[in-house]
Amino acid sequence: MRTGYKGINLIKSFESLRQEAYKCPAGVWTIGYGHTKGVKPGDKIDEQEAEQLLAEDLRQFEAVVNRECPGINQNQFDALVSFCFNVGTGSFIKSTLLKCVKANPLNTNIRHEFSRWNKSGGMVLAGLIRRRKAEADLYFS
To answer: Which family does it belong to (predicted)?
Structure first.
């Protein structure tokens, strides 16, 4: 399965297009739509390059969600790819969220598991609260 337009739009809405490298709230150099690999201060890209980087970045998260969560629907897949994109594959694989999805993809406790991931650097961030709600809403739509 590949990320659909709802998932891509969700990711883009929270990552926002940044054409010049910046430090995210976690202190990581970032560019485009949340791309971090090899980003250095002063890097610049155009919108087309940002779209290409996002498409490339999504492949690794899609692969993990496909492997770990066979049989889920498109909205569930898109929500989990967005989550994995944001928290990283290691955190996703260790998460109680993933355990709940594997046990029963329709478990309503999954909404709560999304909401628990609202911190960066130990601080609760309003943007992460909004993102987790949007991901949970997409997952259950």
So the answer is: Belongs to the glycosyl hydrolase 24 family.
- The number of distinct structural domains making up the chain is 1
Give the pLDDT confidence of 23-75 residue by residue, as tens digits: 987 788 999 999 999 999 999 999 999 999 999 999 999 999 999 999 999 99
Instruction: Give residues with Cβ within 8 angstroms of 50, minimum separation 6.
Output: 17, 19, 31, 32, 33, 35
Tell me what the pLDDT averaged over the chain comes to.
96
Q: What is the dihedral of CA 101, 107, 129, 25, to 10 degrees?
A: -10
Write the Ramachandran bin of 119: left for phi over 0, alpha for psi from -120 to 50, otherwise beta.
beta
**Residue 24 annotated among the catalytic residues of the structure:** yes
CATH number of the domain within which 89 lies: 1.10.530.40
CA atoms within 13 A on the CB side of 121: 6
- Domain enclosing residue 78, as ranges: 5-139
- Catalytic residue (choose from 24, 49, 51, 68): 24
